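Weekly structure sync - notes
Attendees: PM, LS, DV (DV joined late)
Agenda: review two folding runs queued last week.

Item 1: First target. Sequence and structure tokens pasted below for the record.
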Amino acid sequence: MPSILALNRFFLLFAMLFLAVCGLAQAQEAPDVLIRRVSQEVMDLARNDPAIQAGDRRRIYAVVESRIMPHLDFQRGTALTMGRNWRQATPEQRQKLSEEFRNLLLHTYAGAMSQIKDQTMTFKPLRMDPTDTDVEVRSEVRMPRRPEPVEVSYRLHKSASGWKIYDVNVMGAWLSETYRTTFASEVSKGGIDGLIHTLEEKNRQLASRDAQESGKP
């Protein structure tokens, strides 16, 4: 069972890849066209930027912050992940949960970004009506030395400011469902404040680790 302290490395790589792809999105484009258009640009950046390939945390965080984070709907994603426990949270707790979940994903995607090497993506036809405001984009990611492609799906909804990403599926596992069990476990042990504390502590640990790695020669 996935824990809040250790997510599947393979899952994170491709979740991050999708989110990075959407960082240059333009609202008027269909979601699949948007992702297809910019995916190669982002993969080229990750492959060819020497600082990213060297694991420069400052550079990686700058890219994640500028190209990924503004295009995610953290409140919607956090609410989906929390499930029924979201209804029990106060407005202040919801804000704090969304902030800490954002920080957790920031650390996670930054840690995975330098792993992008020779992956390629292909997309399946998008099943979407013109009036749809919530869609699923499906793709396959191919990796060297792996005979079978990895199926990756993305949930996006159309907000007033354009399409926003709120969930990712890799090989049948939605990100929201992966976290939901561990979030619920933390809530059952210490309430919503206990979950917030756990997320804060995890983010402090990740920040400390990144600071140490940034200081290495």
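Item 2: Second target, run right after the first with the same settings.
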Amino acid sequence: MFQRCRQWMLTVSSLVIMSSSVVASPFDQSLNYSLSLQAPALSKVVLDKAIAAMQCATSNGLKPSDRLAIIDFSKPSSEPRLWIFDLSKKRLLMEELVAHGQNSGDNFATEFSNVVGSHQSSIGLFRTQESYFGRHGYSLRLDGLEPGVNDKARERAIVIHAADYVDPEWVSRQGRIGRSQGCPAVRPEIAQEVVDQLKGGQFMFSYFPDQQWLENSAYLNCQPERVASYIAPLKGADS
């Protein structure tokens, strides 16, 4: 009798846990699902990781953003691999070509760096900051949120800017668009819109299936103490 009662209690407990998971799941996954419908060319794996990293940052101290930009560097430069989403409306705003660093690879980027002068792109979670007019015109500064991975972005002058070499015609001539010195450069025709959509504290997530990063990122694996220590110095700029 006791054994039957114990088994019944375990079964009920399991059902409660399963029920809670079922109830929570549609809410937790609603953003992922809606955005994936808007951008079928964007890998669901990459989208899920971008949203998970962003939500980890906001649950540990950073203000939520209105928009999210995702770059999938596992795709070739000859294809659109930058997506910008309106998070409140769960809507795709832009799907565009974007350059990688000249030392990151040819059509495919395979090497990434956080080192000044490397002329390579960086991966990881970024926070956009102020727009400005510089040598490339209207541009946008980025702060990397991952120490050792992309936190030298400002020191390296890694910014979003316009570049003539981000041009579909380059693809037909040489099989890829041109390359930057590490910046996620975009077409001149849409650069102002990109900067205006992303300036002032939005999130940008740059992806590549780097095993070390995937296994150790405090945001992808959501390690609250590490994340809180990373973003503490940025809270003044984020407010």
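Discussion on item 2: The beta strands are 67-72, 82-86, 91-96, 124-134, 137-144, 159-160, 203-207.
Action: LS to circulate a short write-up before next sync.
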